[in-house]
């Protein structure tokens, strides 16, 4: 066993690069040396996993600029939009992070992330990269919230299983009702296409908040249920695109 633990770093990197993420987590618990080795988020283990999993387009673009390490990029990929949990009018682009809504008339369409959260604090960025249309909502939903409906409506926030912020009119939405304006600023500026919105879900405090341009906009929703909650958006505009990048625990301050 000591011989395996004491292998040179470049040999360990090659071996570890072929293990699953679950196996790598187990390896990090074996000894201090392996823990420190695998805790280096920019070593060749994570670089090779990124090359195998992520599209070259995503690795070379500015989309992942908020997650600078290879391990963080890999984590973001495993939290990205779920191609098996979206409206039939939406597909996930080859980069793995961006959804595309097909130009289908009289339909509102939504997508959830691959992983939901019930514990801890989590942050992710949403970038609306096409026209908003009449309704463009970002937020969270449980697995019980619908992902498609007829007409152009605020689907996210239309029931008691989803909570959303409509970027078009700056209204908060839940259970089919407008919950007031957001953010609580006089003449709050409207969202500009391409801006990064940071979504902050605090499952310990049961709150949902947002940031824009590194400015905290305040708590949007309180009293969230003790259920698994998923990053979600709903869109109406044909050919619009929305990207989501998971960041991990939010940095206070």
Automatic annotation (TrEMBL):
Where in the cell? Synapse
Q: Which residues form the F-box domain?
A: 1-49
| Listed pathway(s) | Protein modification; protein ubiquitination
Q: Report which superkingdom the organism of origin falls in.
A: Eukaryota
UniProt xrefs under InterPro entries: B30.2/SPRY, B30.2/SPRY_sf, ConA-like_dom_sf, F-box-like_dom_sf, F-box_dom, FBXO45-Fsn/SPSB_families, SPRY_dom, SPRY_FBXO45
Residue spans crossing the bilayer: none
**Residues of the B30.2/SPRY domain:** 59-251
Family label: Belongs to the FBXO45/Fsn family.
What the protein does comes down to: Required in the presynaptic motoneuron to down-regulate the levels of wnd and restrain synaptic terminal growth at the neuromuscular junction (NMJ).
Q: Partners and quaternary state? A: Component of an E3 ubiquitin ligase complex composed of hiw and Fsn.
The protein's name:
F-box/SPRY domain-containing protein 1
